[in-house]
Amino acid sequence: MDPSVKAVYLTFDDGPIPEATPFVLDTLARYGIKATFFMVGDNVRKYPDVFRQVVEAGHRIGNHTFNHIDGLKYLSKNYLKNADKTLEEIMAKMADLGLKGDGGVLGQAKLFRPPHGWMRTLQYKVMRYKGYKIIMWDLVTRDYSTWLNADEVLANVKRYARNGSIITFHDSLRSIDKLHKILPEALEWLIAEGYEFKVFD
């Protein structure tokens, strides 16, 4: 992203789940911030009400495969089918719920983040050909890590955030305890530092 613009892109991976995503939504709403949620397709299937909350709040929706699978451990054809299944699930849920989304449903659903940041070259090329936009990151907070406490995760944000950063948090069971402390503090610090918050087109 543009390093000349004092802006960051907040992203959340692995949801939506009822134990974590509503807290993230409430916190973002408190500060008037929009983010991009890279969703696991099976969670979209299981938790349509939480999915609705994300869309109705005006956040962007991205694809994080149907089963959070590692591209290096799967044949490309099976990996691509898994990603396409998530696209279909998101589109179907949008239709079922009568939701249009913000920024175009298909365009949002074709934002893609590979779990763990790993994918084969063929997978990347085919997904680009099919119109997916691959979104990686430059700052992963490691909020899921059992080796880091909340203060250390927050320190990662403060140490590595820069103009144009794509920051990755997780609305997951492994992260939610830390998020209760660090997400409001991270947002307040970013605001105090003068960053604006953007989402992907």
Q: How would you explain this protein's 3D organization?
A:
With 201 residues, the protein is α/β, with parallel strands linked by helices. The protein has a single domain (7-198), classed as Glycoside hydrolase/deacetylase (TIM Barrel, Alpha-Beta Barrel). Helix content is 45%, strand content 14%. It has eight helices and eight strands; from the N terminus they run E-H-E-H-H-E-H-H-E-H-E-E-H-E-H-E. The chain has helices at 21-31, 41-46, 48-56, 76-97, 105-109, 121-129, 150-160, 176-192, and strands spanning 7-13, 36-39, 60-63, 111-112, 133-134, 139-140, 166-170, 196-198. The strands form two sheets. Strands 1, 2, 3, 6, 7 and 8 form a six-stranded parallel sheet that branches. Strands 4-5 form a two-stranded parallel sheet. Helix 7 (150-160) links the parallel strand 6 and strand 7. Helix 7 (150-160) packs parallel to helix 8. The longest helix has 22 residues, at 76-97. It starts with 6 loop residues before the first strand and ends with a strand. The model has no long low-confidence stretch (mean pLDDT 92).
